Amino acid sequence: MTEIIDTFIAPPCHDKIEIVYQDEYLVLINKPSGLLSLSGKNPQNLDSVHYRLAQIFPNCTLVHRLDFGTSGLMVVARNKQINAALNQQFSQRSVTKKYHALLCGHLNNNHGVIDAAIAKKPELFPRMSICEHQGKPARSAYQVIERLTHTLDNGATLPLTRVLLTPETGRTHQLRIHCQLLGHPILGCDLYGGCLLANTEHALRLMLHASELHFIHPISKERVKAYSTSPF
């Protein structure tokens, strides 16, 4: 069995967490890009969403996570019972999640679905792998918002496509690896080709933002619909 050694040290994140909504049961936040969702085993990676929120809400637990470079909406439970209730919604896929992203190049189709199983491969860590035989089912839908051409300071042009991504499952790195499979990696994605194409190496961040999150409040039973404007 291949031993996984995580050598990643997160640079300091000076951006604050925005609390979008809170009550005695849960907290809705906007996570900044460049902040871990959960503190790592390495003491140098202490700072995280959970670490910061635990100073305010001592019993809080993460219901789901966003990648280090991804910004946007997260729901955090304030006790174990609420965590279990929200986890059930995620497991049953009754939670709606939508993301805005900038993809490298111009997509030919205006919409489509990527259906490709994803597996963990310790020898590739931290990358995931597309594997139909050993992977878990993963399905993502995309819709083109606009095709644009960004002019860089050096005069070079960079074709990009702004898309709305809707993951129907919640696998690790799902949207990032699915966009790579599509042939148009997310700009700024260091693991799946978003920094390899010409003029993409200077992207300031991973251009992926969790812009919508819809779920049922475990106590009030009302549908919560949270929206966050993409910063890019």
TrEMBL record:
<keyword id="KW-0413">Isomerase</keyword>
<dbReference type="InterPro" id="IPR006145">
    <property type="entry name" value="PsdUridine_synth_RsuA/RluA"/>
</dbReference>
<dbReference type="GO" id="GO:0000455">
    <property type="term" value="P:enzyme-directed rRNA pseudouridine synthesis"/>
</dbReference>
<dbReference type="InterPro" id="IPR020103">
    <property type="entry name" value="PsdUridine_synth_cat_dom_sf"/>
</dbReference>
<dbReference type="GO" id="GO:0003723">
    <property type="term" value="F:RNA binding"/>
</dbReference>
<dbReference type="GO" id="GO:0009982">
    <property type="term" value="F:pseudouridine synthase activity"/>
</dbReference>
<feature type="domain" description="Pseudouridine synthase RsuA/RluA-like">
    <location>
        <begin position="25"/>
        <end position="180"/>
    </location>
</feature>
<dbReference type="InterPro" id="IPR006224">
    <property type="entry name" value="PsdUridine_synth_RluA-like_CS"/>
</dbReference>
<dbReference type="Pfam" id="PF00849">
    <property type="entry name" value="PseudoU_synth_2"/>
</dbReference>
<protein>
    <submittedName>
        <fullName>RluA family pseudouridine synthase</fullName>
        <ecNumber>5.4.99.-</ecNumber>
    </submittedName>
</protein>
<dbReference type="InterPro" id="IPR050188">
    <property type="entry name" value="RluA_PseudoU_synthase"/>
</dbReference>
<dbReference type="GO" id="GO:0140098">
    <property type="term" value="F:catalytic activity, acting on RNA"/>
</dbReference>
